[in-house]
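Obj: model holo form, ligand = iron/sulfur cluster.
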Amino acid sequence: MSMFCFQCQEAAKGTGCTIKGVCGKTDVVANSQDLLIWVLNGLALLQEKLKKNDPKLNHFVLDALFATITNANFDKESIFNKIKKGLALRDELKQECITKGITLPAYEAINWNPSSDADFDTKAPSVGVLTTTNEDIRSLKSLLTYGLKGMAAYAEHALNLGYENKDVYAFIYKALRAATDETLTVDELVALVMECGKFGVETMALLDKANTSSFGNPELTHVNIGVRNKPAILISGHDLKDLEDLLEQTQGTGVDVYTHSEMLPAHYYPKFKKYENFVGNYGNSWWKQKEEFESFNGPILFTTNCLVPPASTATYADKVYMTGATGYPGFKYIANRTNGNQKDFSEIIAHAKRCAAPTQIEEGEIIGGFAHNQVIQLADKVVEAVKTGAIRKFFVMAGCDGRMKDRDYYTRFAESLPKDTVILTAGCAKYRYNKLPLGDINGIPRVLDAGQCNDSYSLAVIALKLKEVFELNDINELPIAYNIAWYEQKAVIVLLALLYLGVKNIHLGPTLPAFLSPNVVKVLVENFGISGIKSVDEDMKIFLGGVA
Ligand code: FSO
Ligand code: SF4
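Output (holo structure tokens):
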């Protein structure tokens, strides 16, 4: 075993990647990411002593956590640089403690002083999750850390738009410290995991506010999935501020902009509709990029995950640009914005001008924009449809897509749902069914896409609104079933947020997380009714009581 990582749904053999990541992450990168988290744990202990609200420290912690999310950063140099930055910050905090006469916490990461990069490689294998020997404690600490990674990603998007919440930072430090505390019991860790869900809700609410204040409320939108005949840039990932900068800088250049994967919901925001060169969405969810990037012809900008390492024969590898927390060895990296200025996208725009226009792979359009404000505007129509029985049930099918064959389940599940049911979705999971001809119910589309994975928050707001309208005491009395697909750690924070909001009986698939020990699964089953998925036929019966 040269590494151990079990943070995503594609963990090898359903237990963990031990030689190389299924995602393509090398052992060196996986280990260095463990080391980076360990350095953050040390920083959090020092922060407990100093209780600073230091933007430099807060922003570094968000970026470092984000960089360890699945499919975000595959670049050893980039991770090593973050470790060095973390150690430099640690030394500043240590010095401040010493000056103030504060006793330094006893934790190895606080006193570890590598003399060269080789020391990183030597140290890293001894700080990963397997150092916690009790399986249940390891499971809960992992659940907490992965929830934190997702939270940091969403907090960073909000930060990029100028929105921050100091309570979220305080919780991130508290949870990072928990990893170092060997006295914590299972019950205490379960409580911390629930608190993580609470701050997950706060962070997603903050990002919702940042997005809607900056770009308006998402509205019903028909998104073009065809192409036109100009050279173009494909923008992937989740960061709307990067998209705004790119759209501003491509005006009048003759270069078009298309969204890819999780950037699709950007089309739903009123502010982005004013850009004439914002043409449409190209392709499908992240895992199909190897084929779709070939035919796009122009350069591709990754603002966040999910990157798939290109094959050695790929013709597009020299056209991929990374920015933010992402990284890949040999790819061009566009530096972060400074002093409130835009990022400089001139290189990628010049690159696009030298490329052919995209080759069309699809035509037509998809409909979306059903975030909370749009759905609440339709509330009368929706309530009427429920009262008359035109809508029997809603199915929340939010979350992630993935490359494993068994995810066909979600397409078949959507196809098999009776015609008096409506799918509420968010995240890249939608690509499993958003191009199916599922029709509408009295003008309400049968697939209501709220947006990105973080817009799962919108689905919770909608559920809470319906609870109020129907005058129910409990969100679980609504005719809403939850069949959620997960892949990486943003889905973990979405799940914890839903649990915190009291949602019960969530079905989670295609497999339960490898990092959940049997006892932790038992806690989730007993307290929240969480379960996995079975076959489409069996699940239809479970969800619809045998009346399919
Ligand atoms: Fe998907 Fe990737 Fe958005 Fe994730 S593109 S899998 S949960 O990064 O964040 O939904
Ligand atoms: Fe394996 Fe997922 Fe970790 Fe990648 S992120 S190494 S696929 S468990």
